[in-house]
Design a protein that fits this description.
Blueprint lengths: L5 E6 L5 H11 L2 E5 L18 H4 L4 E2 L12 H18 L2 E6 L2 H9 L9 H10 L3 H11 L1 H4 L7 H14 L3 H7 L12 E4 L3 H17 L2 H12 L11 H8 L5 H26 L4 E3 L1 H9 L1
Helix pairs in contact: 1-14, 5-8, 6-8, 10-13, 11-12, 12-13
Length: 298
Amino acid sequence: MENIRQLAIIGSTASGKTSLAVKTAKHHNAHILSLDSLSIYKEIDIVSAKPTVEEREGIVHFGIDVIYPNEDFDVTTFIDLYKEVYARCQQEGKNLVIVGGTSFYLKMLLDGVSTLPVIDDERKRETGKLLQDLPAAYTMLEKLDPLHMSHIENNDRYRMEKALHIYLQTGETPTAYFLSHPPKPTISSALPIYQIEWEREALRKRIALRTEIMVEEGLIDEICMLEKKYTRKPNCMKAIGIKETLAYLDGVYSKEMMIEKITTNTSRLAKRQKTFNNSQFKNVIKGSVDELEKMLLS
């Protein structure tokens, strides 16, 4: 089968990626794959700002409403999703527009990730016992592999679990294992990347307006439903917009303070996204929404 044409649109949250992606997909006969760590979840609709059915304008979107909030999801799962989407685009004679704010996923598609070993049940049980004493487990791992653990916080249970799994299953330290299992890029062909640029204050105003609209559309009711159905345990319940609303429900914030906190924390996220994009991707085509639209639709 022939290779399809692909491009990526990245940018900070609230920068206008959704609308530009839909217009681009229409023009280039493409499907859309979302790069968004919250839109991947079913029932997280308002706080994720996922495009509505109307906003999708008939364009098929992937990476939206894939799993439930209490289901696990990581970058390897996203890579598998990308492969499925690519194959479907080939079958249907469609191109692909990759778009979203979680551009770490895009970075991993381009750089690749190492294949992890299959962990048997006995090793999982052993790992679980060790993690009951998190400080002791961290000390053990730090002595075994100081280089790998220098990038992991002493309360990061998720990454500590992965490190223990690798060591207990293979007998190798994570550093040694990854040296012998180097990452393989998923996307090896040239991928044009377009980055939407905004002035900081203008973007903050867009974020503030979007936050107010979210509240008007039922943000608080959505978070109440999510907490009742899934508790606060899933990782996605710690996302911006969710954690501030939970604090409001706990009586920590007033409604006005909740809105301000969401706006401020989202603006900080936008700054981190821009820093990441600028440092991790080369030969990126940057411009305003209007400038990029002219390029993409010409």
